[in-house]
């Protein structure tokens, strides 16, 4: 276990500590939609889910489409879990 000297957070590995300390170094170097992202990976994930690519995961209750399954629960409209709706695969 290693500890962040900035905030005291305990991390399992030195690599994890290195990634964590970058969050203290800058408030985000990558920008889109008025939001700052810590690294290029998170910016690419944002662009893929909000601006580009297919949105093939559809909510059967509200009809909204998502690029990945993670986003379907972020709206909080009590969507059913996959498989419990009787909906075809790829829908929620």
TrEMBL record:
Residues 70-92 are annotated as: Disordered. Signal peptide: none annotated. InterPro entries: Snail/Krueppel_Znf, Znf_C2H2_sf, Znf_C2H2_type. One of its GO terms (cellular component) is nucleus. Residues 70-83 have a biased composition (Basic and acidic residues). It is found in: Nucleus. One of its GO terms (molecular function) is RNA polymerase II cis-regulatory region sequence-specific DNA binding. Keywords: Metal-binding, Nucleus, Repeat, Zinc, Zinc-finger. This is C2H2-type domain-containing protein.
């Amino acid at each position: 276990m290693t500890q962040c000297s900035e905030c005291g957070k305990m991390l399992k590995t030195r690599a994890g500590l290195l990634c964590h300390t970058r969050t203290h170094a800058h408030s985000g170097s990558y920008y889109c939609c008025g939001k700052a992202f810590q690294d290029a990976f998170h910016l690419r994930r944002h662009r893929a889910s909000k601006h580009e690519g297919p949105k093939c995961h559809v909510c059967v209750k509200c009809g909204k489409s998502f690029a990945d399954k993670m986003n379907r629960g972020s709206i909080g409209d009590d969507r059913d879990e996959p498989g419990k709706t009787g909906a075809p695969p790829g829908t929620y």
